[in-house]
């Protein structure tokens, strides 16, 4: 009898606890499931940025910067390494946002960093070239001399490398005309290691350049003895940078590698000289780095009778 009472008391004591544990487990399971569903729904609707175009503009110009992605809206925000840049969201759709971007006429030439951010924490860094050349978009079908894309002699091309295929561009030069050509990839954080070649109508190579003394980007100038059509070929030296971007510039700008001194004190006026093939043809330039001097400044160079400029960092 006493034993039965003890068993009954034990069952009475344990059963409510078991029921409570079971209820807690069911509640925990339901809550966990709901949280997982919420997380999955949040991930499914997360904002993303997949592409930003264009990457070239001129000083004093307002361009439409097109941002593509998913679940975008007018909450998109933009910051720039150049505080003089002004922007506003002019149109917003879930897959595409258009930003009106104004570059003041006093903005220095060269690459600028833009950061686009969403409230969900997505950040996309975009390099914008401020250039005095006219922008051209790579056609994507210019992989032979026969299908070469035509360029004027004051152009900058937003190009994309096609791995093992070369891109060809056709230019027309006058007798005695000097033309400068350069390719920028490092400022774009591109994996492309460009090689440039200049070809005449007979298929002969007039000039070919690879790396410079300061990096894998390449540049050259050429004075044409005969008027006519000529072709520029650009390709990746390793034939492995498919989809990588490049910026091709064609103009009458000076070919320079660096300026000296390589660094200057912020808030002070300093005279710099240029080095490189055309360095001695350029006069010294007075510059002043504002503030504490912690930023990289692009120093432009241009011939007195030239239409376009080059630049080097300091």
UniProtKB/TrEMBL annotation:
What's the domain of life for this entry? Bacteria
Q: What Gene3D superfamilies does the record point to? A: 2.60.120.380, Immunoglobulins
- The reply on keyword Signal is yes
Q: Where is the signal peptide?
A: 1-46
Keyword annotations for this protein, in alphabetical order, are: Signal
Q: Does the keyword Signal apply?
A: yes
What's the protein called, per UniProt?
A: Peptidase C-terminal archaeal/bacterial domain-containing protein
């Amino acid at each position: 009898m006493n034993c039965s009472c003890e068993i009954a008391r034990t069952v009475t004591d344990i059963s409510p606890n078991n029921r409570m544990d079971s209820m807690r487990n069911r509640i925990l399971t339901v809550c966990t499931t709901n949280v997982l569903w919420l997380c999955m729904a949040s991930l499914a609707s997360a904002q993303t940025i997949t592409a930003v175009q264009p990457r070239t503009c001129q000083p004093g110009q307002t361009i439409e910067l097109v941002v593509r992605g998913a679940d975008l809206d007018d909450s998109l925000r933009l910051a720039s390494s150049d505080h003089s840049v002004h922007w506003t969201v002019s149109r917003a759709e879930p897959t595409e946002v258009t930003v009106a971007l104004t570059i003041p006429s006093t903005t220095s030439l060269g690459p600028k960093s833009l950061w686009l951010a969403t409230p969900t924490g997505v950040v996309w860094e975009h390099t914008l070239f401020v250039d005095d050349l006219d922008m051209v978009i790579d056609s994507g079908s210019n992989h032979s001399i026969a299908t070469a894309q035509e360029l004027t002699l004051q152009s900058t091309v937003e190009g994309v490398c096609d791995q093992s295929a070369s891109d060809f561009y056709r230019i027309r030069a006058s007798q005695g005309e000097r033309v400068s050509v350069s390719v920028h990839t490092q400022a774009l954080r591109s994996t492309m290691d460009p090689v440039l070649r200049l070809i005449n109508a007979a298929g002969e190579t007039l000039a070919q350049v690879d790396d410079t003394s300061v990096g894998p980007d390449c540049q050259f100038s050429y004075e044409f003895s005969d008027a006519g059509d000529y072709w520029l070929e650009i390709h990746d030296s390793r034939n492995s940078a498919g989809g990588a971007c490049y910026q091709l510039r064609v103009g009458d700008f000076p070919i320079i590698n660096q300026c000296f001194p390589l660094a200057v004190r912020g808030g002070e006026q300093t005279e710099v000289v240029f080095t490189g093939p055309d360095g001695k043809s350029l006069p010294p330039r007075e510059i002043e780095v504002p503030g504490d001097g912690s930023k990289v400044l692009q120093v432009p160079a241009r011939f007195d009778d030239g239409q376009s400029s080059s630049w080097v960092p300091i």
